[in-house]
Write a structure and sequence with these properties.
Jelly Rolls, 4-stranded antiparallel β-sheet, 8-stranded antiparallel beta barrel, 236 residues, 2 domains, 1 helix, mainly beta, Lipocalin, 17 strands
Length: 236
Amino acid sequence: MIRKGRKNMKRLTLVVILLVLPLLPAHAAPLECNGPRNVAAAYRSDGGAQLNACFDLDRNTVAVGLADGSRVVLPATVSGSGARYSDGARTFWEHKGIGRYFVGEKLLFEGGPVSTGYKSGVTSQLLVKTSVTADGKKIAYPVTTNPEVTAMLVEIAPKAETGWHKHDVPVYAYMLAGELEVVLEGGKHVTYKSGDAIIEVVGTQHNGINKGKETVKLVVFYTGIKDQSHVIRKQE
């Protein structure tokens, strides 16, 4: 009789656990992100679910800790805007501070950044994090004893274009306004909109075209070499 009572008690306990588990809040899988070239980030959805991420700048991957406790590591892929990591089946995309996780075409998570540790009144958002340029080539910094950084405000009128050119040094830009279509040598097209960060191609001919009705405005940063041209025009 006692054994039967204990068996019934165990069954009752199991039923209670099964009923309570779905009510417990989901916690994102913890991630170790302590490497010298690792960057930690966290995102929270409107419903309170959290996704943790660890960007490995050396391996050019992201480790994602999901709300169900699972963990995946995804390689970087070419993205027209934001930072995209995918193995073909699963994708993590960070754009304008919003982190999104997909399985196939299904969106499983979307959320904004969790506090970065700055004091109240200061916010930050990740625009892009990548080790490759817009055409997928690995970023390589120039080796020089005369480095020079140049920041420029560039405006492209409606229907105007930059003309075919290339850069032999890394160039980065931030779109302030408008929409810019960049045609790369070989035929690939990449479109950037206001708020996008641009990781320019290096050593590849390209042409920027403003097909819209609004003037394109962008801030461009050339990480170059003193007395060396940043822009090399294509000889027609």
